[in-house]
Amino acid sequence: MITQDQWNFLEALHEEGERFDREAPAGATTRRNITFQTGQFLYQLVKSSAARRIVEVGTSNGCSTLWLALAARTNQGHVTTIDISAQAQEAALGNLDALGLGPMATLVCQDAGEWLAAQESSPVDFLFLDADRGHYPAYWPHISRMLRPGGLVVMDNALSHESECRPFVEMVRATPGWFFATYPVGKGQFVILKDE
Question: What span is annotated as the signal peptide, if there is one (predicted)?
């Protein structure tokens, strides 16, 4: 259960991220956090599916990681979040610790493609994609190998960056054994079920 203090923290973090991105000079690195509505959606999906092994590609400052970790705590699960930016992950760890969620997450500072390729086939329950969309097609063979039957993949920005996401979406559609749909939540969530 999310407490009022946690809810307030999540709202404040979202608002701060929106303000930071609006005021960032041209060409500066922005946070590009998920929307607040997307965070709620992820929390509901993870908690209701009883997902325990959760992988996130794209940590940023941990906005989405917090929602995932809050749901994982209920399920006695754990989040592994991957990002190439050590600075972003340092900020994410600070936010996780602020809510007492540090033990719920492992932060991996590494290229996501390399990390995914190095994993053995394992029962990942839930995987969230929110990084460089051009790399997703290369990730797909590893994701499809790692995800357990009945597991979920959620890709952010399916509507806001539809053309960038299209190669990945088409690859998923061409793979037998997967059920998928796009939901108009936040910037668009492409939800993929391993339907085996």
Answer: none
